[in-house]
């Protein structure tokens, strides 16, 4: 499946949860499959922290350019693009195409940098709804996402209950807990205290706060993997044991394979990810909390939802543990909503939502079989 | 109990596991209680990452200067200084008194900085044994420690099996797993990539890599606390909600209480802890692995131990989980050693070993009742 990203320009400002607004902006998106005659087979896929509109397929001439959920979405796949018209959209504030901090602030002509307004999950969903308007789609057959993408799917059912028939919420949570916020905060502090951050206006200095981005990504990677899979993959293996098998006895050189892996992931990430985007997206995660307006009562918050739901969690996911998905399931059941829930006994931690566990893939496939097009 | 630190100078170099050696060096220590006539009532207390020889009591004129294990050690306390002669010793490489990276390297006259040799748990234990020699103590009634201190206690029973009658190993592990090493590595990278680190020779530049130390400490704090206690203590509480109860919508200001707590802990730590010491101590943690010389067989490694053991773990400790303590218990039982083990159902995570859980304190008290003086 060869795909091409598209961009839609929105001239009208988008009012934000914060009270600010974004002036004219672009959303970059991709579509897979064909919209049917009554425009009833659209599936919107929402992305998580480190992803984009490029959900499935490949770019022409780039054989290794598979989208991030290419195992899930495509012809004959669980979300079958022979039946569904799937839309991947890049969120506002991202660094992968849609308007974000490195784009010019119309007020100054300079890159927004740290002046890009704080955006929330609700703001992203509102922007996605405008894109659907532009595409002439009133109602989604389904909205789906994993992790932060699952929060967007959940928020769709609350902001636009009449426009969503099914919501698929994978490896997600009804809000971040204190530990989740703590990890985000450490990552943000690493970025903003990097001298190359320059208060978020590093573009004009021709530098990138790579030190901070590396640390942020290393922390992220630890939280994406389970203890079990880390021990299985890396354990205490030395990267490059001396001939004698002895340690190198160095505090700064790489000694263990896990160190090498994390440094590599950090380096790679710091080459392409925008520091301001990292701040914005982690803050959107922190702020998401639909129960907040209902005194913390999630059941009351989810009363608005009328969609049918599939929730999936993974036993070894300690970032968004099954307990958090069960909170959503319980609140939906309290409201007598139609909910399917699968708790997959997978070793991979939070990352499992991107992987090929056959039980997980099978659950999504079966669920989409009964999503009417 | 008013206490006074003492220092012993060792003129003879200490050979290290790495093959290097430390030239003449000082160890700072404190003692509580009285050594009995047959010198049989000594208890050595080993410290963890962020601690020192100041284990119990207070300094004259400093009412808030309690030692870090003052709830455990003192007259009438579980480790009763009316019965035992307790020794707290600061490890080599520390920044609290014993010779460390900020002290002059005799080879250059300048501070060691990053040239301070890498020290291991085994090296620390060897240095502690020399201190006992100097104090005229052949055999310890007990050696005890929590976390990294527990590793030293365990190592004592392997390096000097004839000099230890009891070992008390609390909230510890037979080695670090991949996730533990990963967190250490992120902390170290934050420190060494701080431009103020200057390759470990920041002293001569008159600066301190505070940015890196702050990040290291924030990461540490997250791993010391359980998810449960973080949610109970901080949850999603805003530090300073606007009058309307609304979010501030900022990526850099403190919004949640947990952020404020972590920043405060990071700031405080960066004011007093030495960056090179942080690298050395986390590396000593990484390297500790007594089973390594036995092909990973912990039972074979612990065959040397002849002490009696008390191990304690805490259910919500995800840094050194009960599973890790049980590995040690099993390996000791495989060797038909005398082992008591308590798994305390405490909500506080790794930090529990420093806290006042009455069941935990009671277990240690009962154990020490039967440690003959």
Overall pLDDT score of chain A: 96
Strand arrangement in the largest pleated sheet of chain A: 1-4-8-5-9-10-11-12
Query: What is the subunit organization of this protein?
Result: homodimer
Most extensive contact: A-B, 62 and 62 residues
Number-wise, the strands of chain A total: 12
Distance between the termini of chain A: 21 Å
| SSE arrangement of chain A, N to C | EEEEEEEEHEHEHHHHHHEHEH
Round the Cα radius of gyration of chain A to an integer and report it: 21 Å
Binned, the helix content of chain A reads 25-40%
Which ranges of chain A are low-confidence, i.e. pLDDT below 50, for 5 or more consecutive residues? none
Major sheet details of chain A: 8 strands, mixed
Overview of this protein structure:
Two copies of one chain form a homodimer. The first copy, chain A, is of the alpha/beta class. Helices cover 33% and strands 14% of the residues of chain A. In chain A, the strands form three sheets. In chain A, strands 1-4-8-5-9-10-11-12 form an eight-stranded mixed beta sheet, with helices on both faces. The first copy, chain A, has a two-stranded antiparallel ribbon with strand order 2-3. The first copy, chain A, starts with 5 loop residues before the first strand and ends with a helix. The mean pLDDT of chain A is 96. The interface between A and B is large, with 62 and 62 residues.
